[in-house]
Amino acid sequence: PIPSPSAEIEKRIKTLETTQLNHTEKINILGNQTEELKKNITALKMVEDFQNICIIDLTKDVKSIADDLSDGLDNLTSKLEKNITALKEVVHKVQTQSKARKIKPKNVQRIDTIGATATASFRIDGESFVAIANYEDNYRDVVKEINSTVYKVDQEGVLTHFQDLPSSGATDVEYCNIAGEHFLAVTNQQNNMFDREINSTLYQFNKSTGRFDIYQQFKTASASDAEFFTIDGLQYLAIANARKEDSSKQAFSDVYTWNDESKQFTYYQPLATDKARIVKHAQIGMQTFVILLNDKSVDVYNHNGTYFSHFQSITSTKAADMASVSIDNSHRLVVVNHENSYLYQFNGTGFKKAQTIQTNGAQRVQPFTMDNNHYLAFTNFKSSTNSNNNDPHRHTSDIYHWDGTQYNEHSNLDTMGAKSSNHYRSGDDNYLMVHGDETSSRVTSYVYKLSHVASSFL
Questions:
Q1: By C-alpha distance, which of 442, 423, 443 is closest to 433?
Q2: 152, 188, 217, 277: which has the highest count of C-beta atoms within 10 A?
Q3: Which residue pairs, CB below 8 angstroms and at least 24 apart, start in 32-38?
Q4: Coil, strand or helix: which one is 304?
Q5: C-alpha–C-alpha distance, residues 137 and 295, integer Å
Q6: At residue 93, does pLDDT exceed 70?
Q7: Is the pLDDT of residue 353 over 90?
Q8: How far apart are CA 421 and CA 228, in angstroms?
Q9: φ, ψ of residue 410 in degrees (nearest 5)
């Protein structure tokens, strides 16, 4: 039988209703699952937010702890630095006290010299020598043409006569070694006729005869001082000239340079001076200075690679001596006056006054180093205040010690009208030769052996 259309339609409708019911159930299930998933996502977000909050709080805590530690470390570091500074000060005081041990001079030799004015110490083939420039003998008549003298120094520091060098009113003697050859320059001021424009002499050590021979002569005008120095390996010689025969004419000081071909010093350049007394040089970094002590000023010349040009003038009235001193890469000038000598320090642009040293009758200054300590020995000729035995020439000469900042009075020598001094070494021992002037130019020179007194501080 053929089904009726209505029955078929109802059947399909029931089928569709069943399918719809199934889909609705699935949709409900999916909806429930979606809600659950939303809840889970919300929960995860809450967890993530909590984690972020925890991380932020933890970061703050860590930063706070780090800051506290940093502050603590800074405080600790500051305290340590203060303690280290204090410890350094204590060490410096100990070292200064140790270094400042008094020098004990022991008179080991007396030498009769004639008008001794300057000294140079040097070594040849392992042997030590001292050369003394003698100015004049006025025991009966004034005699300028007298010999200067070279002494040999033995292992005990004792000087024995080695050789006489002809000189005429000698004012200085300087030593130089050029390519293994040994030279002495002697500046002459006057002859017996009191002529001032006379020759100064360069002596060379003759290795065959073992004696110094006249090697070269220079025209000078009342020569007062000499100085050897080098620039870029080339040897120079500067001579300070005080005055010409005609005092109205300016006496220039002169610089000479060594010529390797001729094996002689050749004229290099004049330097404008006024009654020049002393000439020194200073090597400061790449700069070379020649410094002249004049009647009323200290004039500094700087080598510019081609010649010397005027660099600086320092007012100074009739100063007696000058020295150039280098300590720990710092450079100073010592200008000696009878009263109140001055220390000038180079600051990069020039020499500036750094210290006043009270001196009394100072005539010369001798810088020297002993056991890594730096000293200045002032030789005092005549005191303006000392009335010992009514003789102002009976006067101590003073040794000053460098403490790292300035020179301080340190030790004394009993001297008699001291004119100059020279420090030299023999083996491991240190000596100071002092030229005194008792009643005339027949000077008695004394050799002192120097040693340190044990420090009570240590």
A1: 423
A2: 188
A3: none
A4: coil
A5: 26
A6: no
A7: yes
A8: 19
A9: -130, -55
What's the order of all strands across the beta sheet hosting 147-153? 116-124, 127-134, 147-153, 159-166
Q: How far apart are CA 108 and CA 426, in angstroms?
A: 13
The Cα-based distances of 267 to 53, 128, 223, 256, 277 in angstroms read: 89, 31, 16, 5, 20
Give CA–CA dist 270/256, Å, rounded.
9
pLDDT digits (tens, 9 = 90+) for 38-62: 877 877 777 777 777 777 777 777 7
| Residue 138 backbone dihedrals phi, psi, to 5 degrees | -115, 30
Average pLDDT, the chain: 86
Residue 3's pLDDT is 59
pLDDT of residue 457: 38
- The angle at the Cα of 435, spanning 429 to 437, to the nearest 5 degrees, equals 155
Q: What pLDDT does 325 receive?
A: 96
CA neighbor of 154 nearest in space, from 426, 424, 434: 426
Q: In this model, does residue 455 exceed pLDDT 70?
A: no
Q: What secondary structure does DSSP assign to 185-254, as a single string? A: EEEE---TT---S-EEEEEEEETTTTEEEEEEEEE-SSEEEEEEEEETTEEEEEEEE---SSTTS---EE
Q: How many residues can be counted in the chain?
A: 458
pLDDT for 140 equals 58
Lowest mean pLDDT among 5-14, 108-117, 206-215, 323-332: 5-14
Please report where in the chains the tokens 């001292």 appear, as a residue: 130
Structure tokens at 209: 């005869």
Distances (CA, A) of 383 to 297, 418, 440: 24, 11, 17
Note the pLDDT tens digit of each residue in 362-406.
Answer: 989 999 999 889 999 999 876 655 545 455 455 688 999 999 999
> What is the torsion angle, in degrees rounded to the nearest 10, for the CA atoms of residue 236, residue 239, residue 240 and residue 244?
-140
